[in-house]
Amino acid sequence: MKTVATYSTPDEAHLAVARLQSAGIAASVRDDLTVSTMWIYSNAMGGVRVEVPDEELPDAMALLGEKPTGEGLLVCPSCGSTDLHVRPLSALAAILVLLQLPLPLRSRTVDCRACGKSFATREPGRA
Fold this sequence. Notes:
Blueprint: E1 2-7, H1 10-22, E2 28-30, H2 32-37, H3 42-45, E3 48-52, H4 57-65, E4 84-86, H5 91-98, E5 107-112, E6 118-122
Antiparallel strand pairs: 1-3, 2-3, 4-5, 5-6
């Protein structure tokens, strides 16, 4: 097995593995449990590793090097870029989550890294 990519969080690594497995490449995650319990050691350990068999390494590297495309991908309405950053929840929303109260969110703010403009997007399932 060869390491094809490393990630800071287990979630990112599992998304990469799911993408590889959907393409028929046998992939596995290594060190995800250690990083999830001792997250402060993530950088010291080299992150969470995604491994593939030796013979599938070139295909896996090519697949992970491609930008995801498809229906439902968030795109900037100004420039068409997919290089976006969704702003995290506000302090008020975090407090509501801790108190287990419903969040009155109807939209999230998204910043485009390419053109620098911001726009609002509706949460999935909201009218």
